Amino acid sequence: MTVLVTGGAGYIGSHMVWDLLEAGESVVVVDALSTGFKWAVPPEAKLVVGDIADQALMRQTIERNYVDAIIHFAGSVVVPDSVRDPLAYYENNTSKSRTLIDAAVKSEVKNFIFSSTAAVYGDAGLLPVDEEHPPRPESPYGLSKLMTEWMLRDTAAAHNFHYTALRYFNVAGADPKGRTGQSTRGATHLIKIACETALGKRRFMEVFGNNYSTPDGTCVRDYIHVSDLVAAHRLALERLRSGGSSMVANCGYGRGYSVKEVIASVERVHGAPIDARPTSARPGDAASVVADSSKARNELGWVPQLDDLDKIVESALKWEAALQFRNQR
Ligand code: UDP
Questions:
Q1: What does the mean pLDDT of the chain come to?
Q2: Does residue 123 have its Cβ closer than 6 Å to ligand 1?
Q3: ipTM score here?
Q4: Which residues are paired to 118 by β-bridges?
Q5: From the candidates 11, 121, 141, 257, which is the catalytic residue?
Q6: In ligand 1, which atom is closest to the CA atom of 208?
Q7: In the prediction, which pLDDT does 325 show?
Q8: Fewest CB atoms less than 10 Å from the CB: which of 138, 140, 178, 214?
Q9: Pocket test for ligand 1, best of 82, 208, 210 (most atoms within 8 A of CB)
């Protein structure tokens, strides 16, 4: 049996592929290489360069490789871009997912794991949010993912098809073994930007807003190490394969750090101050987004191993320092 990983040449997908191979799985990756990198796919995995919306290609890939499970990462992830060009996000994240789910049903793949997001909640208030909280996405990005969750729910009700949608909080860090990391060009995430600044790839960085209703006035987020996130996917895969029912689960640690605390961590780990300049709030940023992750812990048996902000930052810094050489390959 083979696991099909869409977006396996990207940031989270490539960590997933390494993890599956280590667990002895056979893996086939489908990636259009629009933002991912060929070098990020381990040589032991088969790489098919193509579009998940090419249904003939997907069905052929599924059937020729005896795929029994799909882990679906491929998609667009930049929230402000989704506001500027919503139809591109509904196409890339929603329509293409529909075609992929259709291919899965037609080729009788019963197990499907979907990369969803905390953005489905919108501004959920200052307390940790659980899966029962009514989704109210504030961006086309969040809605494009929520619509896919709903397609999965309805497909599971109609067919012999089971899914797990994992709602990611703020994913950061890099493979502790240094094999892959966040390499996306123009990535805008806080830990990435702070690491680039520490390493002199940028002269300064900006802190968006300092007047939020949080302890130090900057936004609070639940930063989760990418390797712990990937571990949750593998538990979800085992659970689905052994007949577990469809579910939606948050993936975060349940603890938030402010922008200032993250910058302080980067300074601590790097050993030098960063030029971080306060500026106006970024439109659409919620004050605090923290997961209640009891469900993943109880139902998937998920036990995070890398729940330590400095460790996340350390792995991200190490990767960032190595990255300029990698991207030339
Ligand atoms: N942020 C910041 N400066 C940056 C990038 C991000 O102050 O250069 C803030 C951003 O406003 C948010 C938090 O850091 O409050 C996390 O942002 P990120 O883009 O990493 O993730 P998001 O929570 O928006 O998905």
A1: 96
A2: no
A3: 0.99
A4: none
A5: 141
A6: 7
A7: 61
A8: 178
A9: 208
89 included as an active-site residue: no
Structural fold of domain 190-221+254-326: UDP-galactose 4-epimerase; domain 1 (3.90.25)
* Fold for the domain defined by 2-172+223-251: Rossmann fold (3.40.50)
Number of residues written out for the chain: 329
Q: Which residues of 7-20 are buried (b: 16+ CB within 10 A; e: fewer)?
A: bbbbbbbbbbbbbb
CA of 190 to the centre of ligand 1 (A): 5
Beta carbons of 226 and 174 less than 8 angstroms apart: yes
Structure-block tokens of residue 304? 């995070």
Helix (H/G/I), strand (E/B), else coil: 129:
strand
CB 285 less than 6 A from any atom of ligand 1: yes
Q: Where are the domains of the chain?
A: 2-172+223-251, 190-221+254-326
Matching CATH topology for 2-172+223-251 and 190-221+254-326?
Answer: no
Residue with the nearest Cα to atom 2 of ligand 1?
Answer: 207
pLDDT, one tens digit per residue, over 133-190 is: 999 999 999 999 999 999 999 999 999 999 999 999 999 999 999 999 999 888 889 9
